[in-house]
Amino acid sequence: MKLRKYKKVISIMLVIGMVFSLTLTSFASEDSSMYDAFNFTNGYGYVGMVGVRVTIGAEADINVKMRVRTVTQDQIIDLIQEYKSYFTNEQYNKIISDESYRENGNGAKLLCCLLETKYGDGSDNCFAKVKDQEVRAENPEDQALLRAIKDLTEQEYILSGNLKVKGLSYTPTEACCFVKVARIRFKDGSTLNVINTNGTIAEPDGTRDSITGSDENTPLDLIPLHE
After folding, report:
1. 25 within a domain of the structure (yes/no)
2. Residue 120, in any domain of the structure
3. CA–CA separation, 28 and 23 (whole Å)
4. What keywords are annotated for this sequence in UniProt (predicted)?
5. What confidence tens digit (pLDDT) does each residue in 6-44 have?
């Protein structure tokens, strides 16, 4: 009886090994040149006007309710865990110890951290402020991870919350809401967008010369548009 039980365990292990081999074969049969490079943009993105003009000394509470399309921070965390074996121990520990992994609202920052760690030149913040920069994925493992990132699904949400603004100029100034945005453009022309769900108030050109108020640490809610 013990011998039969041992044989059964071996058979299960062989089946698992065959499934794993088939998965690797499936990726190898694809055109790997689709995943040997991507373009990356990282910075603050304009979300929209908030409908308030303020002058010096004037203060206002602003209710934000904006429609956005994004991949969430939780989706990226799930991907990191699912493809943990694609990172070295040093890379993995660097990602999970970053504040963008541990603190809510940092989806764009976490994606940037992942890409810098896996595809960067080894320096910190090498993708901190880039616009459509080409990034190479040199080996099959890097390409397989890029394919997994491409398979993430953007969904529509309502970005909602409260921000504060105060005028610093005698000239009435329109307040705008900005969030940090990370965007990957793949070789087939498709894109993937990830935002921080922390909003900041600034002028239409992104400066804060005439207004002040909520900074990028102000949390906003990300509410699914279709539940």
Report:
1. no
2. yes
3. 9
4. Signal
5. 333 323 223 323 333 334 444 444 567 899 999 999 998
